[in-house]
Amino acid sequence: MFSGSIVALITPMHEDGRVDDLALRRLVDFHVAEGTDAIVAVGTTGESATLDEEEHCRVIAQVVEFAGGRVPVIAGTGANSTTEAIRLTRCARIAGADAALLVTPYYNKPTQEGLYLHHKAVAEAVDIPQILYNVPGRTACDMQPATAARLSHIPNIIGIKEATGDLSRVEPLRRQCRPGFLLFSGDDASACDFMLQGGNGVISVTANVAPRLMHAMCAAALAGNADEAHAINARLDGLHHKLFVESNPIPVKWVVAEMGLCPRGIRLPLTWLSAAAEPQVRDAMHQAGID
Prior knowledge:
Helix content: 40-55%
Strand content: 5-15%
CATH topology: TIM Barrel
C-alpha cells in the first residue's frame, strides 16, 4: 500500500493563519492528478507543531475525506507526550486514515529504552498501522537501527521514515528489522540512492511542488533503473536543497503560493520567505521546470 513518492503535505493557510479548507481540497486533488503515491497529513511540513489538537484532527479528517480512497493517507500523529500521541493517533484511526506517522519525542530527549516504550505504548493503544519517524536534526533525539528493529516486531508498526540522510543506515535497518518492514527516506537529497539501496519510497517535501517528477524518479529507482532515476533526480536537485534554505516549510509554502495553489499564510514563529532567499528558490524552480 505504501511506496514511492509520498508527499509531506503543507497545511494551506490564509494570511491571518486560519487553515484554508478550499485550498486543502485543491491540493489533494492536485496530488491525485499528478501521480503522488500517498499523502502525509499534518506532518512536520504540515505545521503540526502550531496546529492545536482540534485543528490537527480536523485537517487529518479533511484530507481523508478529500482523498476519497484515491490515494492512501498517512496521518502525522507524533508528540513528545505519549498520552497526546495516543489521542492524536486515535483521531487518525477514527477519521479513517490508512496509517499514522509518529515522530520521535522531541525536546525531552528520551533514551533508546524510552523511545521503545513510547512507540510500543502508542502501538498497543491504537489499532492502526504505524510508521516510526526519525529526524534528529529537529528532535535532538536519534532512534538507532537496533531500536527500530525491536519495534519492527510489534505487528502494527510497519515501517520507519529515516530522515538523517545517512545512507549507511539502510543496510542495518534492512538486516535487523523483520522481513517486510518498510523503509522510507525522509531526506529528499539522498532519497534516490536510498531507494536504489532497497528503500521503499520517500516522504517528501519536494513532492509538494514537483509531484509528477518525484513520482517518476521514485518509480525508476524502485524498478532498479539507476541511470533514469539519477537523470530525473538531477532536475530536482536544486529543489531538494533550496527548499531548506530557510526552515521547512517556509520555502515550500512560498513555492506552492507562487504556483497559485494556496494563499501566503504561515504561522508564527515561522515567517514568510525572505526576499533575499527568493532568487535561490526561484532558480531551483526553473531548474525543475516549474512556472
